[in-house]
Amino acid sequence: MRQRSSYPEPFKVQVVQECLQPGATVSSVAIRHGINANVIRKWLPLYRDQLPAALPAFVPLRATPKRP
């Protein structure tokens, strides 16, 4: 009988972060790391809150000259 794999927490957070990237799928990330996709799906709600906050996006501001 095969023993259950144990993954370090930083690795789990990294995998969840990869899954949340635009265009990424849980299946593609699972295949890339050799992990069953169902395992990653269990990690998503557990580690989503531990991800670093996204940096604020640059929003262009159009300035108009002040009229006297």
Q: How would you portray this structure in words?
A:
The structure is a single chain. The chain has a domain at 9-50. Helices cover 44% and strands 0% of the residues. It is built from three helices and no strands. The longest helix has 11 residues, at 9-19. The radius of gyration is 19 Å and the shape is elongated.
The major β-sheet equals:
none
DSSP strand count: 0
Number of distinct helices: 3
Helix content: 40-55%
Give me the strand/helix succession.
HHH
Alpha-beta content class: mainly alpha
Task: Report strand %.
Answer: under 5%
Overall spatial form = elongated
Uncertain runs are none
Q: Provide the residue-averaged pLDDT.
A: 85
Radius of gyration, Cα only, in angstroms? 19 Å
How far apart, in Å, are the first and last alpha carbons? 82 Å
What would you say about this model in short?
Helices cover 44% and strands 0% of the residues. The protein is built from 3 helices and no strands. It is elongated and about 80 Å long.
Topology (SSEs and partners):
Layout: H1 9-19, H2 26-33, H3 37-47
Helix pairs in contact: 1-3
List keywords for this structure.
68 residues; elongated; 0% strand; mainly alpha
